[in-house]
Amino acid sequence: MKTKTIFIVISRGFIIRNILRSGVLDILVDHGMEVVLLFANVRGKEFPNEIRTEFSGRVTIEVLPSDTMGNNFKERLYRKFTQLVSFLVYSPSTWIYSKSGTQRQLQRSKFLPYIQRLIYTPLSKISVLKKLARWIEDHIFYDGTYAHLFDTYRPMVVFSTSIVSKHDIECMKEAKRRGIKTVSMCKGWDNITKILLRTLPDLMIVQNEGLKNDMERVQNFPRNHIAVTGFPQFDWYKRTEIIIPRAEFFAQLGLPADRRLLFFGSEGAWAPDDDRIAETLAQWVNGSETLVRPCSLLVRPHFSDITNPRFNRFRGIPNVKLDDNYSFSDFFIDNWNPGVAETKFFVNCIYHSDMMIMVASTLALDAACLDKPVIGIGYNVLHRPNGEDVSRDLYETDHYRAVVQTQAITMVYSDSELKSAVNNYLTNPTHNQAEREVLRKELCFRVDGNSSKRMAHNIMSLVK
Fold first, then answer.
1. Which of 412, 399, 400, 407 has the alpha carbon at shortest distance from 439?
2. Which of 301, 435, 407, 426 is nearest to 354 (CA)?
């Protein structure tokens, strides 16, 4: 009988948590699949021994080379091609990211995004250009770098966990040339409406119904080839056995258990000034009259800031805990390798917090999974070089508009509004509870502990 081999491409550390450590891999292996993990070596670093040890005996591990084409003319042409065709999907998300998505974009000419929008808004409506770009991607820029792996293992299915990543794209192109089924997903929930997906799979996995609609509408992908599964990492919220008693958990944090806990989650590189909000909250939890209940503050930096010391100043402040429970790994481009212990700790942070305060983050969905009040910071976290506050832009992307429209999060645009929102939730934590239920159903899909199972069974449906 032919071996049922599945390739899984991994290009980010957090994908290991979402796919390999949340249940998807276990289900595939338990159903007799021979899994080969293809780790993208983007930086040319040595592969971490702890990961090899963790998964050895259950799967085969291959490390993909750091560069697939070299720095020759074809590679330079390919880079220019990817830059140009990415805008063939031009949406509110594209517009926001092009003018204020990163510090680099904030510092360039203010006119360039307007020129791009003028050119690409009409071009993005021409479906044949998308088809042409994808044909060029699949046929002109094929180089066969990973052909030897396909010859060796003869996979039945290739599972791409980040459809926009170069190594994933190369593996899918190789699979297509051989008639091998492909299934893919976006590494996050903001990619579908932001850029053109340059190569398409046989089956696309998305996290919720809204993304299914976006995939059909924006990427011209057939609806009957899209599977909705939910977020595998949210399965952890249904594993009640990992919850630590409150007194024990607060002892771990070094915080008093009789005070309410405010969870502040940074958005890292996308909100480089949001430590100012954390500083304000740190002052409030140590004030005598600011908040209506005694509170402590948990400050969680974003993994994109894992090497940035801007939050270190919160160490040693009374009633404040800096969450530095990150597993650093310079092998991955996101510098992160979140293990099982770290994930369990994070779940307990959400479970024991009294509210979530964040900046346009997936943390709003995490909090909604456990029905925690959420406050969205819309001020003083993102600025242009001239000092202009453009923080509100972060909530104007397609994927985050969907969050705001549920009215499950309380948006604030000043310190006074933030203080009022915090005090309101301290006295009335059920405020917006019905709206949070809408957010759970519409954005999280089903928080039932079975997202990993749905994803795994969709992958296995292509094994013939």
1. 407
2. 426
Q: How far apart are the first and last CA of the chain?
A: 11
Which CATH homologous superfamily contains domain 240-443? Answer: Glycogen Phosphorylase B; (3.40.50.2000)
Two structure tokens written together for 434 = 């019905």
Record: fold of 5-68+135-234+450-460: Rossmann fold (3.40.50)
> Please, which residues bridge with residue 393 across strands?
none
Measured in whole angstroms, the distance separating CA 162 from the mean position of its chain's CA atoms is 10
The arrangement of strands across the sheet holding 320-322 comes to: 320-322, 295-300, 260-265, 355-358, 374-377, 409-412
Helices then strands, each counted (H, E), the chain: 19, 13
Q: Parse the chain into domains and list their residue ranges.
A: 5-68+135-234+450-460, 73-121, 240-443
* Cα 71 from Cα 336, distance rounded (Å): 27
Six-digit token string for 274: 């949001």
Helices (H), 317-362: 340-352
Q: What is the pLDDT of residues 151-195, one digit of tens each?
A: 999 999 999 999 999 999 999 999 999 999 999 999 888 889 999
Supply the pTM of this predicted model.
0.94
